[in-house]
Amino acid sequence: MASMILVIDVGNTHTMIGVYEGEKLLNYWRISTDPHKTEDEYGVLIKNLISHSNLSPSDINSLVISCVVPPVSWVLKKMSLDYFKISPLVVSPGIKTEIRIKTDNPKEVGADRIVNAIAAYKLYGGPVIIVDFGTATTFCAVNAEGVYLGGAIAPGINISADALAEKAAKLPEIEIIKPKNSIGSNTISAMQSGIFFGYLGLTNELIRRIKRELGKEALVVATGGQAELIAKETKLIDKINPFLTLEGLRLVYEMNK
Predict the structure, then answer these.
(1) What's the pLDDT score for residue 2?
(2) pTM over 0.85
(3) What is the number of structural domains in the chain?
(4) What does the H/E/C string look like for 161-228?
């Protein structure tokens, strides 16, 4: 087995972990993001996941981290040193990305958004719009020249459903699915209609507006946990790539090695 790259993308709710050999994704895992976990807990868990896939942790020679939860970033850096004897590459201001960030304050753009933009532009060219259906749903715009222009941030579909159940005393928690009808005949189906079709409308409208502002016909790529649910119901999303962020982390490694 050749040397391998371990990539870790820490989101607010879930953490995606992948192992690459060259350009090939050998395996990946999704775990809950827990800011209370120690470096030892993360280290044992990640090593066990790798070993359970008949891969050898000792073959990991590079480690790349994207993190939007600051306390976890520090813990994973220490985990990398203690358990893999590797100083990790952390996506942060100052690393090479091969895209320019043209926003009011480039340093405030989330690491996950930068990594997604890198991967989408490298894989599909520009202009490209990336929609990441995570805890928050982010819309990112990259022009034909590879310049990251910014985008939009909306509450994720799960946050919207949870807020309804939490703030309205008589509304229950629901499973987020596409309902048969937009006119719900009971509380649950009415909530499912409002959440699903309302979110679909939000997605379509933001894509349309961003496309107009980009000024050219942009490709639209969806990623994230709810990408399949929403993307298959709209004609405005061209590609679904569940591994876009992991691929971006691999590309960041290639750009900085």
Answers:
(1) 63
(2) yes
(3) 2
(4) HHHHHHHCCCCCCCCCCCCCCCCCCCHHHHHHHHHHHHHHHHHHHHHHHHHHHHCCCCEEEEECCCHH
The two structure tokens encoding residue 100? 């320019």
The answer to whether position 223 is within a domain reads yes
Residue 119 CB burial class (10 angstroms; 0-12, 13-18, ≥19)? buried
104 within a domain of the structure (yes/no): yes
The 8-class DSSP code of residue 91 comes to -
110 & 72 share domain: no
Confidence at 176, pLDDT banded by 50, 70, 90 = confident
Contact 135, 158 (CB under 8 A): yes
Specify whether 112 is catalytic.
Answer: yes
Considering the domain architecture, whether residues 75 and 148 belong to the same structural domain is answered as no
pLDDT at residue 114, as a whole number:
94
Each residue's pLDDT tens digit, 29-82: 999 999 999 999 999 999 999 999 999 999 999 999 999 999 999 999 999 999
Shared domain for 143 and 237, answered yes or no, is yes
CA–CA separation, 208 and 228 (whole Å): 19
Find the catalytic residue in 9, 34, 112, 162. Answer: 112
Judgement on whether residues 227 and 119 belong to the same structural domain of the protein = yes
Q: CB of 200 within 8 A of CB of 234?
A: yes
CATH code where residue 29 lies: 3.30.420.40
Read off the DSSP letter of residue 140: E
| Amino acid at position 221, single letter | V
* Closest C-alpha to 63, from 207, 249, 217: 249
Range of the domain at 186: 100-244
Query: Is position 124 within any domain?
Result: yes
